[in-house]
């Protein structure tokens, strides 16, 4: 049982937390990209460099 549990720190729990965090970060990144895509015509109209800096 020592392989699966080291004191208060469980490798399974750590792996699960890491996956959850990765999923959240990817979701946020995806949301930002979607927002950037929907706003790009407006940004391009005002300042073309804004679109490039977001990428």
UniProtKB/TrEMBL annotation:
Domain of life: Eukaryota
Record protein name field: Uncharacterized protein
Organism: Gossypium arboreum
């Amino acid at each position: 049982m020592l392989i699966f549990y080291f004191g208060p720190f469980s490798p399974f729990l750590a792996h699960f937390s890491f996956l959850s965090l990765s999923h959240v970060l990817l979701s946020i990144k995806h949301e930002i990209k979607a927002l950037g895509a929907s706003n790009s015509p407006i940004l391009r109209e005002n300042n073309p460099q804004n679109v490039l800096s977001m990428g």
